[in-house]
Design a protein that fits this description.
The complex is a heterodimer of chains A (294) and B (314).
Chain A: H1 2-34, H2 41-59, H3 66-89, H4 95-118, E1 133-136, E2 139-142, H5 143-165, H6 167-177, H7 179-184, H8 189-214, H9 223-237, H10 242-262, H11 269-282
Antiparallel strand pairs in A: 1-2
Chain B: H1 3-30, H2 35-58, H3 66-82, H4 87-104, H5 113-132, H6 136-139, E1 145-146, H7 152-175, H8 177-187, H9 189-194, H10 199-225, E2 227-228, H11 230-233, H12 236-249, H13 256-274, H14 279-293, H15 298-305
Antiparallel strand pairs in B: 1-2
Classes of the chains: A mainly alpha (294), B mainly alpha (314).
């Protein structure tokens, strides 16, 4: 029985980890191209959680079918936000500090807006698959989790294809590696960053849709938690490595689920924070990285 | 005007301003003005100036500044309630606890920029969770501790002493060798090291002073409000508000954080009264606009455009 429980925990660790990895992926795209930690990132994930709720209520749309719609909507929102605030922030004496604090402001605004529209109590997505639980190799796994994992893997595959096989994707990776050189060869960094920002926000919101499928409940105040998780994940994966972030996410998901199994419930959040501190202090290049950006 | 007389003019202007400010604060309760308003004004001035010692002079943004505030509040509460000591011992214990915690966290000073901010945030979160999980007989668990030493006026004057001491410390720092060393490190750590400045040691001093101020403030707030609990004592908003107030006025200047607190508390109050529902939303908007249009802060921008004012304002 205990081994069964352990396997069950490992499986949910991997599934949640893939989703955490996606949060980290979008966060690291922004950090990599702009050297900005988007403090409001988690709030966009939570906004993404609410999106299928609204679309299901208004149009009766299946949460999975709402994914492209959510992506397009939040892509536009991200682009708009970028062009509204980023060009000005970049001219500050200390762009890193200025943008970090501005995004804290954006996070407060997003949290307050969601509180206004959806109230303080937690909500859940009232949608269930049929059958609701799958038996796989003796393990009981909720169908929603399997679907979320599959959707997450498709997203990761799409993202990898974009980053490694298309020209804008290659330009994006080049910007992460050397922002100075990419300007010299004639790429419009401002446009590219806008695109990257829109894409990252869209991806964060889509991850939110999947999280709404998997998590029993979410509220307007969870944004900060997701931002922190995203940051831990990208530190684990090595800052500026979109693919490393996925591995970091899985590692974090496993650590989190195991700590829930073995530690008292109120103490288990410590593990995530301890993981962050340990990695930054001992392995600043991330668990799999070679070069430190510290 | 010679350098010496300009320095004297500056010192006199500064002392005059400080005395007027102190007189306002001391007289406020006697005039029957709301004690809570003045208490929290002094509290935020102290915290923003304490943070300025660290951030303004070294460029570090400790998002976990609340850890020191919280540990101070708990140290005082445990001394008073669980050990039955006088509140004076409580304040002393808070200062010691803050200093010890800052030494424990000293290793994080090797980190730069966002790494430092996020690790500091994580450390504060760990402190909150650990304190909330201490056994009930020790720290009251999730319900917190009631101190039972309600003497609001006493706590108010204690806070004024800490506030004035903090402002004097920042003034001293702005003029002293240590302050200059810290600014040199902030602007270019490698060159500062080559010039013979002990980078680690200078930073540690600023860090410890900053921490002790926050711990004392936390302890006095616990004394004033008569209750501590982990969620409010280690609240992230304590760190972020102190940072935003200090940045709003101008990091690295002595008067900047004071002006920032006064202006932002005024704005905050206005928002609360007119748009209670949109309060947090508008606060966020104010922060974004501030960073977009006044990234150097109010005083910082003023001094940037009118450098001659540095003679009297700094």
């Amino acid at each position: 029985m205990t081994t069964l429980l352990l396997f069950q925990t490992l499986v949910s660790g991997i599934i949640l980890g893939a989703l955490y990895g996606l949060i980290g992926c979008s966060l690291t795209i922004i950090y990599g191209t702009m050297r900005v930690v988007n403090f409001a990132h988690g709030d966009f994930v939570v906004a993404g959680c609410y999106a299928p709720l609204v679309l299901l209520g208004l149009l009766g749309l299946n949460p999975l079918l709402s994914i492209p719609l959510v992506f397009i909507g939040f892509f536009g929102l991200g682009m708009a936000l970028y062009y509204l605030i980023m060009p000005r922030l970049r001219r500050a004496d200390d762009p890193e500090l200025a943008s970090f604090l501005s995004f804290y402001g954006v996070s407060l605004m997003a949290g307050a807006a969601m509180l206004y529209f959806f109230d303080a109590d937690t909500r859940s997505l009232n949608y269930s698959f049929h059958p609701s639980v799958l038996h796989i190799a003796g393990l009981l796994i909720p169908t929603a989790r399997v679907v979320a994992l599959a959707a997450g893997l498709v997203l990761i595959a799409l993202l990898t294809w974009f980053l490694y096989r298309t020209l804008p994707g290659k330009a994006l990776r080049a910007t992460i590696m050397n922002p100075g050189a990419i300007g010299i060869i004639g790429v419009d960094i401002n446009r590219l960053s806008g695109l990257a920002f829109g894409m990252a926000i869209g991806l964060a919101a889509v991850t939110g849709v999947l999280i709404a499928l998997v998590f029993p409940a979410f509220g307007p105040f969870s944004g900060m938690d997701f931002t922190l998780i995203g940051f831990v994940v990208i530190v684990l994966g090595g800052l500026g490595h979109p693919v490393g972030a996925i591995l970091g996410g899985v590692f974090y998901g496993l650590a989190e689920q195991l700590s829930i199994l073995f530690l008292p419930q109120s103490l288990s959040p410590v593990v995530g924070f301890a993981l962050l501190i340990g990695t930054v202090m001992l392995r600043p290049a991330g668990l799999f990285g070679r070069v430190g950006l510290r | 005007m010679s350098v010496e007389s300009s320095g004297r003019l500056q010192a006199m202007a500064w002392i005059g301003l400080l005395l007027i400010g102190i007189a306002c604060f001391v007289a406020a309760p006697a005039l029957g003005l709301s004690l809570a308003f003045w208490f929290y004004l002094a509290l935020w001035i102290t915290l923003a100036s304490g943070l300025n010692i660290m951030s303004g002079f070294t460029g570090y943004l400790p998002f976990g500044y609340a850890a020191f505030y919280g540990i101070g509040a708990y140290a005082a509460a445990i001394c008073v309630r669980k050990l039955g000591l006088n509140i004076a011992f409580g304040l002393a214990a808070a200062a010691v606890a803050g200093a010890v915690l800052s030494l424990i966290f000293a290793r994080t000073l090797n980190l730069r920029g966002i790494y430092f901010s996020m690790v500091s945030l994580a450390l504060a979160a760990i402190c909150r969770i650990l304190v909330a999980n201490l056994p009930d007989w020790m720290a009251g668990g999730s319900f917190g501790i009631t101190l039972g030493v309600g003497y609001r006026l006493g706590s108010y004057y204690a806070l004024l002493v800490v506030m004035v001491a903090t402002l004097l410390t920042v003034t001293w720092l702005a003029r002293s060798r240590l302050g200059m060393a810290l600014r040199a490190i902030r602007d270019d750590p490698d060159t500062a090291e080559v010039m013979g400045i002990n980078v680690g040691r200078a930073r540690l001093k600023a860090w410890m002073i900053s921490a002790v101020i926050a711990a004392l403030t936390g302890a006095i707030e616990a004394w004033y409000s008569n209750v501590v609990d982990a969620d409010t004592a280690f609240d992230l908003l304590i760190s972020t508000k102190a940072i935003i107030y200090a940045v709003a006025g101008g990091l690295g200047t002595v008067l900047g954080p004071v002006i920032g607190v006064i202006v932002m508390l005024f704005v905050d109050d206005m928002i609360w009264q007119r748009f209670p529902v949109l309060n947090v939303f508008l606060l966020g908007l104010v922060i974004v606009l501030l960073m977009m249009f006044l990234p150097r802060g109010i005083l910082g921008t003023l001094l940037w455009h009118k450098p001659r004012l540095r003679r009297v304002l700094f």
